[in-house]
Amino acid sequence: MIVVDSAADVRDAVRAARERGVRIALVPTMGALHAGHRSLLDAARQRCDFVVATIFVNPTQFGPGEDFSTYPRPIEADLDVCRAAGVDLVFRPAAETVYPSGFATFVEVAGLSDVLEGAFRPGHFRGVATIVLKLLNVVQPDALFVGQKDYQQQLLLRRMCADLDLPVEVVACPTVRDPDGLALSSRNVRLAPDDRWTALALSATLREVRARLLAGETDVAAVRREMRARLEAAPSVRVDYATVADADTLAELDSPRLRMAALVAARVGGVRLIDNLPIDLSVIPAQAGIQPAVRAAAGCPPAQA
Ligand code: PAF
């Protein structure tokens, strides 16, 4: 595994790989790698021949008062994870080379940047889109691997790649969870034991919401209200948002759509966590008993007798 900190070295290594005619993957990360990142690296390894992982805690996606300075940076352990996953090249640039003095160009993905995470973290997605576009420009991969855990981020990166005609496939990999349901996050290590237990309310609430909608609930506005109330009832939880939205536009819903997502962001004992579950009514077989009203509201064809 090659470890480099300059864009020129990345370009040289990728050019040499490309001359061999291989398929190149990019897995951008901020380090503090866990099994969720490992699943992205594994997917990249399976689908591509030359895997580039980047480790960079990107300052422009953290707002004032967020946890940029305390974000975990266990670089040696991260390199071990990359090595074990069969990564070919790790790019870990210094902030001064990514954002040299005079840096003035940022990428805005309108609309998707402003809702949910964007509403609570102004400027966050501008920083994400800018760094990912820069990494895509340096590596020029065939495929970009991102996690479904950051649901809004993967939608926004897809939009950016489509809008800017980037010839890259965006592959979103499923969220990896602890056996009790907690979505893996680099921030979980900062949860006190009681708070970790409390944090299970997030995934449990999402599962309930999904079960209700799959069972035929049509009053999505009521589901959203109850989802928030259930989370707020948990001790030491402060909800930023808890909602059901259109899976592609993230518009909040009052009635079902074929493809939805339940999404939540909350502070648990001071640690901000996000989680989501996609809800796809189109995969429900007609014989599953989903009410005709739901099928009609969500635009499904009528159930076959
Ligand atoms: O998901 C993350 O870890 C970051 O937002 C990303 C995509 C690596 C950009 O810094």
Could you characterize what this model shows?
- By secondary structure, this protein is α/β, with parallel strands linked by helices.
- The chain is 37% helix and 19% strand.
- The protein has ten helices and nine strands.
- The chain has helices spanning 7-19, 35-47, 75-84, 95-98, 117-120, 124-139, 151-163, 193-214, 220-232, 292-297; strands at 2-4, 24-29, 50-55, 89-91, 143-147, 169-173, 237-246, 259-268, 271-280.
- It has a six-stranded parallel β-sheet with strand order 1-4-3-2-5-6, with helices on both faces. Strands 7-8-9 form a three-stranded antiparallel β-sheet, with helices on one face.
- The radius of gyration is 20 Å and the shape is globular.
- The mean pLDDT is 95.
- It binds pantoate (PAF).
- The site of pantoate has 10 residues, from strand 2 and helix 6.
Question: Secondary structure elements and their pairing?
Answer:
Elements: E1 2-4, H1 7-19, E2 24-29, H2 35-47, E3 50-55, H3 75-84, E4 89-91, H4 95-98, H5 117-120, H6 124-139, E5 143-147, H7 151-163, E6 169-173, H8 193-214, H9 220-232, E7 237-246, E8 259-268, E9 271-280, H10 292-297
The protein binds pantoate.
The site of pantoate has 10 residues, from strand 2 and helix 6.
Short description:
The protein has helices at about 5-20, 35-45, 75-85, 95-100, 115-120, 125-140, 150-165, 195-215, 220-230, 290-295; strands spanning about 1-5, 25-30, 50-55, 90, 145, 170-175, 235-245, 260-270, 270-280.
